[in-house]
Every structure is written in structure tokens, then in C-alpha cells.
Amino acid sequence: MLTDRPGLIDQVRDRFAHVEACPFTGPRIFFENAGGALTLKSVVQTSADFAGYPDNQGRDNPASRALMAAIAKGKADARLLFNAPEGQVFVGESGTEVLFRLVRTAALGAAEGGTMLGSTLEHPASRSAMARWAEVTGRPHLLAHHDDASGTVGLDAYLPHITSDLRVATIVQTSPVTGIGVDIVPIIRAIRERAPDCFIVVDGIQHASHGAIDIAAYDIDGYAVSPYKLFSRHGYGIGWASDRLTACPKETVIGGAPSNWEQGTRDAGSYATFSDVVAYFDWLGSQFTDSGDARKRVEAAAAAIHAHEQRLIDAMMHGTGNQAGLADIPGVSVIAGVDNPAREGVVSLTLDRMEPEALVRFLNAHGVRTHIRLNDHYCGNILGPLGLEACVRVSISHYNTEAEVRSFLAAMTAAATG
């Protein structure tokens, strides 16, 4: 855990902007990380620098070459973080847009006929893309149903739909509503055994800041992250596509490189700020390993992040010091259960005596930033089957502390006992 090393959590927090206070409202605890993580200070500076550069890519001058070098470095750094030595890395306008593009390319590039398969656990980014392009290509869009109690979807739910004519499959790695991860490798293996030519696209948007990414071990064709949830900024998404998917026809300018996924001139600052994220993982990992291998340092950082967050989640559920946890606060219900080992950074809950909207306001008044999730087109797939119109999402990151969890629990106790 980060706090096991003297001074490390302070060093971590010092690298992020607005850790302890909102620039608009003042001091607060930030437990709304699933809606967008805090931003590295280096990202803020890099964004400002690159926004001011007047030169463009592809010109014969040092400034232009510097921009192109930043793009090349950003792609190489993304490969390092993703463990993706092959395939193509590209920037899109958002993680959602990247998922749409990956799914569209797969659906149009796959052999005719067959089926497309997703799950009811998915965010509408991938589920809507699949529905759209299944309709366009005249294929059934099949859905593996998630388990309400565990908050995840397993191989058993996918298996009945995995047939030899499966053309495109999507898997969400972690639900942004339940906060529960999906064991994606057995699902991928089953698809490869029965439908080896199926294109497989993974939504890693919620997972990326909480656990390791290992594309080389997944045997997939597409992966997407949203950098604003991974300590960078809004305004772009990062995608990875296999060589096989990249070879499919896709939108590009006439005469352009067929391997190019990007349209027009890209923001070099997007790539540069993603390099800042990878540099942060490298630095954090160096606090836990002496390895000279950058990938080993990234893996060490991911492991430390996961362990720290799991301890925070345990404290949130079962208490810390003399402060009761959510499991013992009267009237609190936790979606997907209190003790769920697959949970990654998110606790979605309800309180019997207070509506979710009122609870979010109450927590705000007590200095804790959370968020309401509604039974709408974003979260209805999870909340509807549970009979809930809304819930409160409490989402942590590795720069949060046990003291912040204790303050949150005190506020929840006050809300529950009035």
C-alpha cells in the first residue's frame, strides 16, 4: 500500500492538481473519480505548452519535427502502458468515439452474416455502437446477461451465444456503475476456440486507472481508454487496434496510408499528455521495484495502485479506527455486495432514509464529492433490474487516503442516523 512507505502518499498527491480543494467551492474530498480522475500537474503544463505551439506536423523545420517526435513518443508510451508491441495506437475525440470506430470497422470488415455479441453490463458507448452496426449490417445483436447480485458477467452467460458464426464481440473490463471487473480472458479464449475469426473489442475505460492492462495476453482486436479517467485531460480518447482489424477498410483520405486510423491533423498535445501519464506510472513503479525494465515498473505501479485501493475499499466497507463501515451503517445497501473481490474503485449505494439526490447534496455539504447515477440510458441496464431509480456512486483513486474514507463514513453515519 502506498501509505506503507513513509512520505510516498504525499508525493503522489503532490503530483495531482486540486487534490484537496475544488477551485470553485473550496476544500473537499474527491470521491467522483469514475466521472473523471484528478489531473496530473504535468499534464496541465504540457497541455498549455502544446496549445501555444504555432507549427504543424509534417513541415521541414525543427518545431514540426519536435511535434512529430512527441506523437511518436506518445504512441510508444501507450504501447508500453498497454503492453501492445504490435498493432496500431491512435487518438480519437473520446473513448466513446474510439469504441464506435473500432466496432464500425469490425462490423464492416467481418465476413457477411453471422451474429454480434455484447452484454447487458456494458456502457452504452460499446452497446450502442454494436446495436447500430448490427442493424446496418443486418446481423442479430445478442446480449449475454449480467448477474445482478455479483454486478458482473461471466463466461457462463456468454457461452450460449458463442457460435462458429460469431463475427464481432465486445466485452467491458469493468462496469462504471457496479464497479465490478469482468474476467475477460476465459471469455476471449472461448470465442477464439469457437469463432477464431471473430473481432473482439474490449472497453477498458473504467478499468484502466485501477488495474494492469496487458493487451499482449488478451488476444483481442481493439481496446479503448478515456485519458481523462486515467489522470490526463478531456478532449481525446486512446485506441489500440490489431493488425488484422487495421487491415479492414476504414475511413481515410484518398491516397492515404491504409493503416492510418486518424482523420486530419491530430493534437500533438494529446500524445504528449499521455506520455506524462506513462511517465507517472514509471515513477510510481520505481518506488516498488529496482528493475531497469520500464514495463516491469509500470506493472509494479499498477499492482501498488490496486493494493492501495483495495485497502481503501475494505476500510469503506468495514470501517477504520472506531468509525463504522458501510456494512454496519443502518439503511445502507451496496450494489453488487459488500465483499466483492472483483470490485475496482467504485461503490454504488443507496440509503433507506434519504433519496440519492438528497444524499449527494448532503455529502457535498459535508465536504465529500460523489455523484448520482440515474435509471436512464446510461445506467438503466444496471439499476432497472434492481428496481432502483437512482443510486449514489462513490469512486476512489489511489491518491485518496484512509483519512478521507473515515470522513466519508462519518458523513454517511450522520446521514443515516439524522
TrEMBL record:
<dbReference type="InterPro" id="IPR015424">
    <property type="entry name" value="PyrdxlP-dep_Trfase"/>
</dbReference>
<feature type="domain" description="Aminotransferase class V">
    <location>
        <begin position="29"/>
        <end position="407"/>
    </location>
</feature>
<protein>
    <submittedName>
        <fullName>Aminotransferase class V-fold PLP-dependent enzyme</fullName>
    </submittedName>
</protein>
<keyword id="KW-0663">Pyridoxal phosphate</keyword>
<dbReference type="InterPro" id="IPR015422">
    <property type="entry name" value="PyrdxlP-dep_Trfase_small"/>
</dbReference>
<dbReference type="InterPro" id="IPR000192">
    <property type="entry name" value="Aminotrans_V_dom"/>
</dbReference>
<keyword id="KW-0808">Transferase</keyword>
<dbReference type="InterPro" id="IPR015421">
    <property type="entry name" value="PyrdxlP-dep_Trfase_major"/>
</dbReference>
<keyword id="KW-0032">Aminotransferase</keyword>
<dbReference type="Pfam" id="PF00266">
    <property type="entry name" value="Aminotran_5"/>
</dbReference>
<dbReference type="GO" id="GO:0008483">
    <property type="term" value="F:transaminase activity"/>
</dbReference>
